[in-house]
Specification:
It is a single chain. By secondary structure, this protein is α/β, with parallel strands linked by helices. It is built from nine helices and eight strands. The strands form two sheets. A six-stranded mixed β-sheet has the order 5-2-6-1-8-7, sandwiched between helices. Strands 3-4 form a two-stranded parallel ribbon. The termini are close together.
Length: about 260
């Protein structure tokens, strides 16, 4: 049986694990999510917070944490998530990408950023499942990220959970000035209709490749690094049925999570 593919909102910095009131629905969703999934043999995370010229893959057997946020309480910098890496899986991923003529490199130094360890702290707090992180491409090309997902899709047959970690709305200024509500609802409705409606995979692919034409698209994503993990998930899903599994307000914006199976 193929593992599902999941795209999640990872929230604002460490706030989902700090009991911040506005993040409680998201935190509860992430805690409950593993009950909807088969137990993965390993997890491959595509986080919004790592971009490289070619695809990079963490190949460290014991990655540390990268506290790539600032201005939070001291507890946010004392978090631990000692999940093992899996160099063999990293090499397997590189082989899959090579077959599709996607340039990639193994990275022995990269630690897990908060787009990886914050949601996983809630989802799999025992930190026993091996984790490998795969970068976004710095060019932010939507078609290439769908192709990246297509190349990773074979891992699903091997018990690997492919997890996209981003946000379906990411306009920092709008989060702080209270202007996020209506545009985020418009874009969220488009995203849900595109992914979970009756359109065939070619139509869906075309829509995601031209996502900037969606209602309020550029307002919701002035820069699209938090959206593109979803494109990778869509590619990895290989036409499977999509279901919206979370839909709530976060810091005044409507955000969603999706699962393909």
């Amino acid at each position: 049986m193929n593992m599902p593919v999941v795209f999640i909102p990872h929230g604002g910095g460490p706030m989902p694990v700090l009991n911040e009131p506005g993040h409680r629905p998201l935190s509860q969703f992430l805690r409950n999510l593993p009950a909807q999934l088969p137990t993965p043999k390993a997890i491959v995370v595509i986080s919004a917070h790592w971009e490289t010229p070619n695809v990079s893959i963490t190949a460290n057997a014991a990655p540390d944490l990268l506290f790539d946020y600032y201005g939070f309480p001291q507890a946010a910098y004392e978090l631990q998530y000692p999940a093992p890496g899996q160099p063999e899986l990293a090499a397997r991923i590189q082989g899959l990408l090579q077959k599709q003529q996607i340039n990639s490199e193994l990275n022995q130094q990269r630690d897990f950023d908060h787009g990886v360890f914050i949601p996983l702290l809630l989802m799999y707090p025992q930190a026993q499942i091996p984790v490998v992180q795969v970068s976004l491409l710095h060019n932010l090309n939507p078609a290439q990220h769908i192709e990246l997902g297509q190349a990773l899709s074979a891992l699903r047959e091997e018990g690997v959970l492919i997890l996209g970690s981003g946000l379906s709305f990411h306009n920092m200024q709008a989060f702080f000035n209270g202007s996020a509500k209506q545009p985020s609802q418009q874009f969220d409705a488009w995203l849900n209709a595109t992914l979970c409606g009756d359109a065939d995979i070619q139509t869906q692919t075309l829509a995601l490749q031209h996502w900037q034409q969606a209602p309020a698209a550029r307002f919701c994503h002035p820069r699209e690094e938090h959206l593109l993990p979803l494109h990778v998930c869509f590619g990895a899903a290989a036409g499977d049925t999509c279901q919206r599994i979370f839909n709530d307000d976060l810091l005044g914006a409507r955000v969603s999570a999706f699962m393909w199976q």
